[in-house]
Design brief:
- It holds the Pfam family ALS_ss_C.
- With about 170 residues, the protein is of the alpha+beta class.
- The chain contains four helices and nine strands.
- The strands form two sheets. Strands 5, 6, 7, 8 and 9 form a five-stranded antiparallel sheet that branches. Strands 2-3-1-4 form a four-stranded antiparallel sheet, with helices on one face.
- The protein starts with a strand and ends in an 11-residue tail after the last strand.
């Protein structure tokens, strides 16, 4: 059975890099489970976190193909034992005077934060592993989920080793 793998890609901050990476996945018929991109501590260098599902040979091929792209500086595959991965969830939940405190208490159990209060709804923000975010949704479901948005996963490996030498 295929399992999920987290890859971090350091690349130059150039226009169209996400398009080039997703195009490589499309041409090779690889599937992206999640992709996120952001700046790093080094000016002009972005870090893209890609979650893929596949057998070992498929993940090796993905890594090789990513390394061939010109603006890519480095591709690193995370060891599941040292992986720290988090996503962001924002969810609008039905809540009026009769159940608002119950919804707030449910959010607190997951260390989530109420970021907006309306007359008949709350917006709750939470970060965590995909399984934690799903558990929060499961608890909030009976109250009525009106809207939700979940970000892609961002990941780093534990320990002192960095992907890219920090500026001195």
């Amino acid at each position: 059975m295929a399992s999920a793998h987290a890859l971090s890609v350091l690349c130059e901050d150039v226009e169209g890099i996400i398009s080039r990476i997703s195009g490589m996945f499309t041409r090779r018929a690889f599937n992206i489970v999640s992709i996120s991109s952001g700046r790093t501590e080094v000016d002009g260098v972005n870090r893209i976190t890609i979650i893929v599902e596949g057998e070992e040979t498929v993940v090796e091929q993905i890594t090789k193909q990513l390394n061939k792209l010109i603006p890519v500086i480095k591709v690193s595959r995370h060891d599941p034992d040292t992986l720290v991965a988090r996503g962001l969830l924002m969810v609008k939940v039905s809540a009026d005077n009769s159940n608002r405190m119950q919804v707030v208490e449910a959010a607190k159990l997951f260390r989530a934060h109420v970021v907006d209060v309306g007359p008949d709804s709350l917006i709750i923000e939470s970060t965590g592993t995909p399984s934690k975010l799903q558990a929060l949704l499961d608890v909030l479901e009976p109250f009525g989920i009106r809207e939700l948005v979940e970000s892609s996963v961002t990941a780093m490996s534990r320990g002192p080793k960095a992907m890219y030498p920090a500026k001195l």
